[in-house]
Design goal:
This protein is mainly α and 115 residues long. The protein contains four helices and no strands. Helix 1 runs antiparallel to helix 2. The longest helix has 19 residues.
Length: 115
């Protein structure tokens, strides 16, 4: 069987030294803080239409910065924009809020039964 461009062998693993780990953790903490702040902002469809792409690019860039471009570790943590969806109710998710139409439907049904 002929080799395809995908059959080039396994990707190299990242080689972080113990001295590099605290810096990597700080980078991840900064990215998490940035994303947490962004999730608390109201959604504006006219300006936030590229959110999924921007968020995934930001996370992927951080992973490549920490683990190295083209490493198996960066690939393991790769995020794709289609993993996100826009919450059509005008806000991003917050703790304790329903995260799906099914869950929202269940909550409405259960509250109607109480009436």
């Amino acid at each position: 069987m002929a080799k395809t461009t995908h059959d080039i062998g396994p990707l190299p693993r990242a080689e972080l030294s113990p001295a590099e780990i605290p810096g990597a953790i700080r980078k991840l903490d900064r990215r998490l803080e940035e994303l947490t702040k962004r999730a608390q902002e109201p959604y504006h469809p006219e300006t936030d239409s590229n959110d999924a792409r921007l968020i995934s690019n930001s996370i992927n860039a951080t992973m490549e910065e920490i683990f190295g471009v083209g490493t198996a570790d960066a690939k393991d943590f790769k995020i794709y924009p289609n993993w996100f969806w826009i919450n059509r109710y005008g806000h991003r998710f917050k703790k304790g809020m329903p995260h799906s139409d099914l869950e929202l439907s269940r909550q409405r049904k259960s509250s109607n039964q109480l009436l």
